[in-house]
Sequence to fold (204 residues):
Amino acid sequence: MTISARVFAAMYDRMMASSEEAGLRDIRRRALAGARGRTLEIGAGTGLNLELYPEAVTEMVLTEPEEPMSRRLRAKVGDRASVVDAPADDLPFEDDAFDTVVSTLVLCTVPDLQAALAEIARVLAPGGQLLFVEHVRSEDAGLARWQDRLRPLWGVVGHGCRPNRDTAADLRSAGFTVQLEHGKLPKAAPIIQPMITGVALPPG
Ligand SMILES: C[S@@+](CC[C@H](N)C(=O)[O-])C[C@H]1O[C@@H](n2cnc3c(N)ncnc32)[C@H](O)[C@@H]1O
Fold:
């Protein structure tokens, strides 16, 4: 376990607090409103989505690969969900196991995004859906250039976060059908703007 992973986990809720209060919590709640059935959340962090799931969710499984995060997650969830230590690109679940997969602020960090998207598609049952809230590469060429330049430094601050990832394009190239809205991550630095929220339907 690295010091950076420990520090990131210890600081995470405090780092997010002003964004959450300024509207991110409501954005999360709206994004999760369509969750239903057996639901998998990848990279669940400290569990900021836990209270926001609707009643249509019948069972919740949370994955988190970083031990300092998963320890906090386990302490928070109690018996409301099971917590599994696993990265999104190697999910220890059967094919078609979930009706909903949720990713909030995770696809920027996953090292091998195409492998993770293939895993998400594999574990989604027919008719299943990926619900997401992600910050993505700017459409403004000047800001995108800064996101490229600052990526190595931001990767240290954000523990592996890539501010310049065009996640919607990556979802589409993995065969997902994407319905999304553009927005702003409340009270967050320009380097992690804009934000997209929506639903992605897996290929096939
Ligand atoms: C910015 S935090 C977001 C946490 C939480 N999803 C939220 O919305 O607050 C990014 C999370 O992705 C996790 N993560 C890092 N690498 C990952 C991987 N390969 N697969 C899944 N999650 C990963 C991190 O440990 C961290 O918990």
